[in-house]
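Quick one, T. Sequence first:
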Amino acid sequence: MCELPAVLDVITRNARRKHICCECGCTIERGELYDAIAGCWDGAWLHHKQCLECARAMIVAAGYCSQWELNSGGGPWYGGVWEWWRERDLVPPEIAKMRGWKAKR
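Structure tokens:
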């Protein structure tokens, strides 16, 4: 569960140096595209970097949430999208394939 940020900015960038994905822990190599996230949660500014595969998983997850779930903080959170998917009764094939999981319908 997570609270919604007061401010959120997501920018796709080209890595000028190596970064670590906040979701899966993979190395984002120099020259690869990644999402740079900056947001203010509970008065504190936080910065995250997501590889594009994890960014896609976040977008798909948000599409599976109801507006109530997103507004109440029950949607996916940065640094926990794969945990959020593991807790679901429904895991679409696209997401299961990314992690080598069996799809749930």
